[in-house]
Amino acid sequence: MADGEFKGSVCPHDCPSTCALEVEVRRDADGVARGIGTVRGAEANSYTAGVICAKVARYAERVHHPDRLLKPLLRTGPKGSGQFREIGWEEALDRVAAGFAERTAKHGSETVWPYYYAGTMGLVQRDGIHRLRHAMRYSGQQNTICTALCESGWQAGVGRFGGPDPREMAEADLIVMWGGNPVATQVNVMTHVTRARKSRGAKFVVVDPYRTGTAAAADLHLALRPGTDGALACAVMHIAFRDGHADRDYIARMSDAPPDLEAHLAARGPDWASGITGLPVAQIEAFAKLYGETERAYIRCGYGFSRSRNGAASLHAVTCLPTVTGKWRHLGGGAFWNNRTIYHWDKTLIEGLDVRDPSIRTLDQSRIGAVLTGDRRDLGAGPPVTALLIQSTNPAVVAPASEKVRRGFLRDDLFTVVHEQFMTDTARYADIVLPATMFVEHDDLYQAGGHTHIQLGPKLVEPPGECRSNHEVLQGLATRLGAQHRGFGMTAREIADWTLRASGWPGWDDIAANRWHDAATDFATAHFETGFGHADGKFRFAPDWAAIGEDHAVMPRLPDHMPAIDAASEDHPFRMVTAPARQFLNTTFTETPGSRKREGRPTALIHPRDAARLGIEEGGRVRLGNAQGEVVVTAKLAEGQQEGVVIVESIWPNPDFAGGIGINLLVSDDRGPPKGGAVFHDTAVWVRPAVEQAERLAAE
Fold first, then answer.
1. Are 324 and 249 in contact (CB under 8 A)?
2. Burial 166-194 (b: 16+ CB within 10 A, else e)
3. pLDDT per residue over 302-316, tens digit each?
4. Mean of pLDDT values over 466-494
5. How are strands ordered across the β-sheet holding 220-222?
6. Is the dihedral of CA 121, 124, 126, 130 positive or negative?
7. Which terminus of the chain is less hemmed in, N or C, by CB atoms within 10 Å?
8. pLDDT category of residue 700 using cuts at 50, 70 and 90
């Protein structure tokens, strides 16, 4: 193909950066756009600023990958065997519709569960599955696998999802990255950190249980024990009151100002926090002094520290810091997690909200294993799930309690349809596999969680083979199932245009002419000068947890360390964090040669003193286990975490592990309070040398 011109697009993947892209479009001899070349960041976008991650820069590897699914497939062998034969689209859709209709006739409509998530973040292609769900009265989905705990913790104090413009990091004198690794997971944060350091001499602090790429770039790394972030936050507030850095006027004006807040925090000083976090008292004091004395202190809250049974409480405690100290008042000050409130979308057309029946049951996404194995705590009085339509996710690897998930997928009575780009672990369990487009091969609309731009992703090239978009598949099924909704008769671009206009934004063509639309709010709104998101405009130090979720009774009344974690014990002395790998994005990019080469193989980061005590050597194989099972990985000795902490960067496909099942085998599918949420970074395990290594050491 000939080199082509660059066209505007946007990264579709599950990352707050939502980068503005320029994609080289390549045409065949007939002038038809059939492929892509170079992918680069759009320099004109004030947040992307020309910078994108290496994995997306190599996106041509995915688009032109020889293993892409190109035709519909019908299973011919046992479930999980990967044995399929090609069939045509008409036959495939007929079979899917017949399978859903047959099971609905036997069990009722709730027996079908459309299951999806963030393989694409485009609003039309990702969320359109709800339109079919609502029109057909299929079971609903509670999205708990990523953001539920963050949402609860942020909502508890702040009340709405917004905050100081992320570009203000460049105006800060102190940036605290709390529980995130943007070098790997949202690289544009580092662009604005670098600007602040160069122009203002800003300090950069990272709070994270291990020495990530981001922590390695920090002026101060607070390597606390996993699940102890609330204790650190409370100690910093204690010191702020003790040393005169608390803004008492701001607390009185802008918060619920519980009369016992200061007394409560008085018992939670640096000595107390040191015993919980494992951090030296001097380090806690130094961080608290730096934070207290810096007006322009910007806390960028990551997702990682919320993925724990106490994650919501921990995030709430962190949001209390800029409230105690009044940092919200300053340019480059305050805290930020996600901007979703600013877009005020009307998703009636995308999701079919006008035909939604609220009486239909909702099933917890993170507990798919429990659902598929018939747990009545999840199914309630309703029917078993006997049919799945899966788009934009790979639960056989991504979901917690992987062995339970696998047992569910192996059920003979379960009819599974997977719409995918590659033969993933989940697709191997399917009865029918449908080939899916990639982001440059369909139209879509994007919001950004990590900045303020609305962006468009127009179709740039023709899809290979017989790949179809999520929207096209839903249209085909709606016709066969008799699903009635006007959205099924519209193109993806028409739906996007309607949604933009109905939400008060310019239409598709207007935004396309300008490449994006900046939806940023004014300073007073972004910094909550006009009030926080609660009815009285006050920040909540004492949240109404009961209004957030049914499991509210266990939540602390005031900011605190909530000890409800899978704590280390004699039998399981290590706390394990399954952090994201730099070259993967969930299970996306695990198929591309560039990412796999750079990641190497599944690895456990172990402190050298732990390794010496256990007889584990660099590069040796180790077993990690608990009551749910065990996995074997390669050991890498690392001093960037405390003893008793083990890190496994993932998510690798199941076949990359001995035994054929990955790291989420060890992760519980417990619901994090108060309203659910996956607890990926809250796991206690034992660590041992693999048998052959132990035997060799004994012989020596």
1. no
2. bbbbbbbbbbbbbbbbbbbbbbbbbbbbb
3. 999 999 999 999 999
4. 98
5. 220-222, 203-207, 174-178, 297-301, 334-336
6. positive
7. C
8. very low
Q: Phi then psi for 100, rounded to 5 degrees?
A: -65, -45
Bond prior to 651 in cis (omega within 30° of 0)? yes
Please determine, for residue 385, whether its predicted confidence score (pLDDT) is greater than 90: yes
**Helix/strand/coil (H/E/C) assignment for every residue in 580-641:** ECCCCECCECCCCHHHHHHHCCCEEEECHHHHHHHCCCCCCEEEEEECCEEEEEEEEECCCC
Element of type H or E holding 102: helix 89-107
Residues 6+ apart with CB under 8 A from 598: 54, 582, 583
Q: Identify the CA nearest to 408 among candidates 432, 426, 389, 435.
A: 426
Higher pLDDT, 442 or 695: 442
The one-letter code for the residue type at 319 is T
pLDDT in tens, 429-479: 999 999 999 999 999 999 999 999 999 999 999 999 999 999 999 999 999
Higher pLDDT, 116 or 700: 116
Work out the end-to-end distance of the chain between its first and last CA atoms, rounded to an integer number of angstroms.
59
pLDDT at 659 over 80: yes
DSSP β-ladder status, 220-222 and 203-207: parallel
The CA R_g of the chain, rounded to the nearest whole Å, is 25
The per-residue pLDDT for range 183-223, each reduced to its tens digit, is 998 999 999 999 999 999 999 999 999 999 999 999 999 99
Instruction: Please say whether the beta carbons of 351 and 134 come within 8 A.
Output: yes
Measured between alpha carbons, how far is 628 from 641 in angstroms, rounded to an integer? 25
Nearest to 178 by CA among 192, 167, 165, 189: 189
Rounded to an integer, what distance in angstroms lies between the CA atom of residue 490 and that of residue 487?
Answer: 5
Alpha carbons within 13 A on the beta-carbon side of 187 = 18
Can you tell me the distance from the alpha carbon of 297 to that of 315, in angstroms, rounded to the nearest whole number?
17
| Cα separation values, 259 from 233, 342, 413, Å | 19, 33, 58
**3-class DSSP state of 372:** helix
Higher pLDDT, 489 or 597: 489
> What average pLDDT score do residues 559-581 get?
96
Q: Supply φ then ψ for residue 72, to 5 degrees.
A: -60, 145
Instruction: Say which residues have a Cβ less than 8 Å from residue 289's Cβ, sequence separation at least 6.
Output: 239, 243
Calpha distance 79→91 (Å, rounded): 20
Q: How far apart are CA 561 and CA 265, in angstroms?
A: 11
CA separation for the pair 80, 396 (Å, rounded): 11
What pLDDT score does 4 carry?
84
The residues pairing with 577 across neighbouring beta strands, listed in sequence order, are 647
Beta strands in 179-242 (DSSP E): 203-207, 220-222
The whole-angstrom distance between residue 636's C-alpha and the CA centroid of its chain comes to: 26
CB count within 10 Å of CB 44 equals: 13
CB 438 within 8 A of CB 422: no
Distance of CA 198 to the CA centre of its chain: 30
Sequence-distant (≥ 6) Cβ neighbours of residue 272 within 8 angstroms: 231, 235
Q: Could you give the CA distance from residue 100 to residue 699 in angstroms, rounded to a whole number?
A: 59
**Confidence bin at 339 (pLDDT 50/70/90):** very high
Residue for token pair 């602040």: 196
Angle at 262 between CA 258 and CA 265, to 5 degrees: 115
Residues 6+ apart with CB under 8 A from 476: 89, 93, 468
CA 269 to chain centre: 32
